[in-house]
Amino acid sequence: MPRRFEFRIYDETNESLLVDSYKLDFVTVPSGLGFVQNVSVISTDTVDYIIKQSLARTDIKLNVEFAEPGSYLRVNSFRSWYAKYIRKKVIFYYHDGTVARYMDCVIKKFELSEIKDGYNTVPITIQPLTPFYLKLDKNIIVSIQTSGKVYPYAYPYAYGGGILSNNVLTNIYFDKIPLTVKLTGRIVNPQISLRHKESQEIYATVSFPELVLAEGSYLIIDAINSRVLYFDGLTLTDGYNILDHTKETFLYADPGDSDIVVNLDQLETKASAQISYVQYVV
User: Fold this and answer.
1) Are 141 and 167 in contact (CB under 8 A)?
2) Buried-most residue among 147, 156, 179, 234 (CB within 10 A)?
3) How far apart are CA 255 and CA 203, in angstroms?
4) 94 beta partners
5) Rounded CA separation 95/97 (Å)
6) pLDDT in tens, 174-230
7) Which of 152, 22, 177, 176 is closest to 84 using CA atoms?
8) What is the CATH number of domain 136-280?
9) CA-based nearest residue to 192, from 270, 257, 248, 254
């Protein structure tokens, strides 16, 4: 498969649903597709010790070649497309022939030039808002099961008698990753926590202590897009004000394995917690 470059728009409430895209047919001299680290060290006579490291977000630059005839029509078509979504979350999609990577971005610079050798060469500068990530649509569904059936989750569990299922999240990135959580009722005083699997220490909790989440209602705690939404069965509203503000607003998973701890009632078999996340990569 040849290299592929696109800009994409996904649905704001269902990010697995592609709304629109614009494929860049012919791209030359791309740069910035690798990675740069920021590293702080303490130096000694023999060894330097890393005390902090992070990925630097550096601009991606590429030339888009709009072919004749009609190159200016194609240029203006792209500009109109981007103008339509300029206030939406725009995702840069890059497939190198083996792996598809995604990145939230803004187009910082679009430099229109003149037609030469049958092409209108337009240098574009893209400013990353996130690291590259794999859009694997990883969903972990935590629920109480009483049917005794076997379900094809990420881990093979057999249920029977009300067992909390599939509650392990693995983050292979070297830093925290943001999670999107959907809690579906009925849950009294909904609360969800992350716990280090090895030490059994709870390190993050989101709680709604004054809420009875009815059957058919749901909460979305979305760290990826920095929003909390509450659906009461009729209306979708901002749920920020019903949070317990003495605890976390959003959940970020530490590197390694974490248990997902949810206060589900064994008698409420329709209640569940769905955790979605993307996997950042270097």
Assistant:
1) no
2) 179
3) 12
4) 5, 101
5) 6
6) 889 999 999 998 999 999 999 999 999 999 999 999 999 999 999 999 998 899 999
7) 22
8) 2.60.120.880
9) 248
